[in-house]
Amino acid sequence: MQPVTTVHYLALSLALLLIGTVGVLTRRNIVIILMSIELILNAVNINLIAFSNQLQNVNGQIFAIFVITDAVAEAAVGLGILIALFRNKETVLADEVNLLKW
Question: Which residue range(s) make up the domain with 64?
């Protein structure tokens, strides 16, 4: 059995990035779009951790913690905005949100 290498982590990260990008570009539900953005951020974190491990440097791991913190804040603010939007428009579809139109 061969050990898990950086290439394996990069392949997993690429798969998560592709799934997240397709989710952001094709879905209309704002909740699914937010979850797809979280997948993209997790792909970035896997890259940071994999290269940090390969280079034997802890800076990538520290930066990944900051990315996770930013993702948590983004999720909290995004869900708060989504709840307010649902109360006003009674929908969570991105196509039907036109609050910023004149």
Answer: 6-93
